[in-house]
Give the backbone structure.
Amino acid sequence: MIYKVLYQENPDEIPVREHTKSLYIEASSEKEVRDLLKGRNINIEFIQLLNEAHLEYEKKSPDFKVETAS
């Protein structure tokens, strides 16, 4: 399953929509996504499981790159 993670790079600041970034992770659950990102110094705003239609839409972005657990 592919998850989209919306996050802020600076965990000490209040989230600002214009500074929100996204990344895509292949994982079996939201908990696994959180575990994979635990060591990063980011502020996770939202984790969304992408359905097939949404994933196809996201693939059209030039910044689309899926990270994996391995």
The two ends are 14 Å apart (CA to CA).
